[in-house]
Amino acid sequence: MKRILVIDDDEGVLNYLLVSLTQAGRFEVETLSDSTKAFEMIDSGNYDLVLLDMDMPEVTGSEVLKYVRLHHPEIEVVVLTGVEDVELAVESMKMGAYDYLCKPVDINRLLTTLERALE
Predict the structure, then answer these.
(1) Distance between CA atoms of residues 34 and 105, nearest Å
(2) pLDDT digit string (tens) for 90-112?
């Protein structure tokens, strides 16, 4: 089973994604609301994919994305953010994100994106 780490500072979003992705039965899901712990968790977690919010206090999604690409290029990153910003989307893709999705996201679209990223 593929392992996914969801990083978002919104507990409601984390709970929704944890339940939705777990119910799909295809992923082992862990969540993290404190972005300052992201690097440590990514280093120790053996994840296949990080589902990442960009707009977080302390450590931003861009910093986490850069870290993953530099230190764990085998981990796919899908950005899921409430910020509809074409420039941020393009920048995220240039930094190596597999895809950029905006909240609220249709769960079927999210599942399809995650499965494609993990192929």
Answers:
(1) 22
(2) 888 899 999 999 888 999 999 99
* Dihedral sign (CA 60, 70, 42, 74): positive
Q: What is the pLDDT of residues 21-80, one digit of tens each?
A: 999 999 999 999 999 999 999 999 899 999 999 989 999 999 999 999 999 999 999 999
